[in-house]
Amino acid sequence: MDSIPQELIDTILDNVPESSLLSCSLVEKRWRQNSQRRAFDTISFSSEEDMNRWCADIPQDSDGISPYVRHLKIKEIYSWAEPALLSRMLESLSSLTTLSMDTTKIPDELPGHISCGEFGNGITALHLSLLRPTFAAMTSLILSLPNLKELCIENCGVMPEGPHPARPVIPQRRPLDSLGLHGFVDGVGEALAESQLTFSRLSSDGGITGIMQLLLVSSETLVELKLCGAWFLRVPRPSRDDSD
Amino acid sequence: MTDIPDDFDDGFDDGFDDEIPSTIHLPPLPALTTLVIELHLSGLLPHFANTLCSIGSAPALESIVIDYPNWGHIDGIFSEDPWVDLDRWLSRIARHAEVAGGLTLTLRRWPEGKSIWEGFLPKFRESGEIKVEH
Prior knowledge:
Chain A is α/β, with parallel strands linked by helices and 244 residues long.
């Protein structure tokens, strides 16, 4: 086994199915690191219990497997018994670049924790799907990630707020590389436009009124525009009277 | 909310703005180089055409793709108003293109061997090039 060059081991590990990676990690020391790197590249949780178990069981040091995690998926956590748990999880994942939240409530405290702890600096991609966040929750989370490049929002409708909702103060930031709006995204484009979030590429198949407002905001930076699935685009109305 | 002034001028004096009703005017998109339009079974809906037509100026635009992955029964649709409006808009964008080589329109995943699109977008053909990718 010792005579096998590391390059060959790496090539094998690049090609084995994911289901075999944990077995490969047990072969011997030289197999372990790259097996674990691939196996733990993406981790998913659908309960606070599982997240708590991860935080308790997995050492947070640089020699453990936490630094291998680059993509964290959170799914179907409709409310948080421990709102700080997600912040703790994010803080423990030093190499995280992508955060996906599917059918999961955005904890109110999360943007503040991220901003204070600066552990969101490495996150460059944010995917939100099947959420119904408030305007403040969604934009606060987006804006708490200073190096965000890719934002994808799918089947999320922004919940109406009171007549005078607290709107986050928007710091000047460079345009996102890409913004994707897909499915039912009523109110999302409008909310992002109101946040003055700009971008270089826009792909969308819904929420035409919001798209128009986003195009107004990003008219100087837009390089690529993809519009698709025209069947549920709503008839746009001129917004000239909206300033009242 | 960004206000759109009532006297917004897209910079072109060709009377185009009066020709298409219900158009929202967008400011110039000076950096836009690529536009991809993906159509589905419903084809080109009027408000979708209006949205595109509201892009008043895109001088750097070098590629427009109209992708039609679910090609259905479409004989005769090209005489419908949305396509006529789109043709006029494409023609104007092509005439004002500032990129070397001009604006190219690609019809992607359109049916092979059919001639129904040969007379398609007649105004645009006067100043722009159409490619077909099956």
